[in-house]
Amino acid sequence: MPVGSVQCDNTTLNLLKANDFVAKAIRERLKDVCVINVCSSPGSGKTTLMQETGKRLSSELNIAVLVGDPETERDAVRMREVGINALQIVTGGMCHIEAQMVLQALDHINLDGVDLLFIENVGNLLCPAAFDLGEDYRVTLLASTEGDDKPKKYPRMFLTSELMLVSKADLLPYVPFSVEAVTKDAREVNPNLEVISISTLNGEGIDAWCSWLKDKVRAKKGIKG
Amino acid sequence: MPVGSVQCDNTTLNLLKANDFVAKAIRERLKDVCVINVCSSPGSGKTTLMQETGKRLSSELNIAVLVGDPETERDAVRMREVGINALQIVTGGMCHIEAQMVLQALDHINLDGVDLLFIENVGNLLCPAAFDLGEDYRVTLLASTEGDDKPKKYPRMFLTSELMLVSKADLLPYVPFSVEAVTKDAREVNPNLEVISISTLNGEGIDAWCSWLKDKVRAKKGIKG
User: Fold this and answer.
1) CB contact under 8 A, B42 and A122
2) What pLDDT digit, counting tens, does each position of A99-118 carry?
3) How near does any CA of chain A get to the CA of B217, in Å?
4) DSSP structure class, residue B180
5) Where are the alpha helices (DSSP H) in chain A?
6) What is the pLDDT of residues A178-187, one digit of tens each?
7) Which chain A residues contact residue B71 at CB under 8 A?
8) Which of A39, A94, A145 is the best residue to mutate to test the B interface, defined by the most B CB atoms within 10 Å of its own CB?
9) What are the Cα distances from residue A72, in Å, to A42, A141, B68, B84, B221?
10) What pLDDT, on a 0 to 100 scale, did the predictor assign at position B6?
11) Do A41 and B123 make contact, defined as CB atoms within 8 angstroms?
């Protein structure tokens, strides 16, 4: 049906649409890999969780990590030190990873036989929420030390996530944080959100987190659990 | 000197220049008020520090707070509950406060006789760094629970701050965080950065923080200490 003109949205929306187009291309390219976009504030424990997860699951799953930071390659170094196949995305000060950055990174990391690819996003509870990276699932960490009022203040991140990990659960005795209250608030934003409390220090919830991951890898490969 | 054309920068730069123009107008309007832009990740303790500071200094200084969040008015409510003159800026999901939002807010808060105006920014260690809000000083909180690797990863915020507050110092015994290491890293980014460790729970460093503030208010009013 020929038309005389195309009505376009404003520039920002077009750029977000371009991002989504690239995200779709990533999904097509990684159709045998379960991709998890891991988000949180700075210092909520994403990298430590990646290290711990790699250690726990390395005998069962082939794992790779793309890790974003505005500056430095420290996190990829930390992961490679414990034997994880990791590539740093340095965003050059940018506050989030975009799909185009992931697409570019895919040419520089060996994904042969990889079952599970984590994209550890830039530490930021806001901007990454707007960018689809071609992931299958989005997981948001919220540390017990950050306070239980965050889901209502930063709703978009919790709305677009499948799982909220309450991290640093070992510090719960020392900080004013109610897992019950934060779960209630987060589910008012996103009724389908799953919640697991975890601690990489005392191991709480790590088994549940690993089971969650293995289920998702199985689902991606079309294997019945 | 008449010219035939004006060479302009790209749109983003123009918008940042417009922000700086508005920030200058704020500075002219608030020439008797010491303005502090308080930045950090989500949950580093900005609001609790504002409450504690209000309590400590209310007999000596007239304090007001503009507080930014992507959603909810919870923080302004928390501050008004302890008697602080506070106005919420709800950014509508935006990841930082802009000068225009502050200018608009100034028409809705009574600043008669106010010595010290805090602008508590959105919890985000990245985007707020780019926006001058007309402040005299920028103060960045970094919680001990966030890890001591943040100044090198998020350098712009520390580069543009006068003071780094290491918050939640009471948790230092429980977390892997070296005040010495973080100070060294932060001063490699910004050699002039002052550093104070604080805890609103056990009171550590709060006297030093209040003295710092009183010095700045005196300096703004042109009073010798």
Assistant:
1) no
2) 999 999 999 999 999 999 99
3) 30
4) H
5) 11-29, 46-57, 74-81, 99-105, 150-153, 155-159, 179-189, 206-221
6) 999 999 999 9
7) 152-155
8) A145
9) 14, 22, 29, 40, 41
10) 74
11) yes
Domains and CATH numbers, chain B: 31-63+115-221 (3.40.50.300)
- Cα B172 to the center of its chain, rounded Å: 23
Which two tokens mark A111? 């994904």
Q: CB under 8 Å, gap of 24 or more: what pairs does B210-215 form?
A: B210/B53, B210/B56, B210/B57, B212/B163, B213/B34, B213/B36, B213/B53, B213/B57, B213/B61, B213/B116, B214/B57, B214/B60, B214/B61
Look up residue B113 and give its two tokens.
């006789």
Percent of chain B residues past pLDDT 90, beyond the cut = 88
pTM of this structure: 0.91
- Cβ A123–B153 below 8 Å, yes or no? yes
Cβ distance A149 to B74 less than 8 Å, yes or no, reads yes
User: What pLDDT does B10 receive?
Assistant: 67
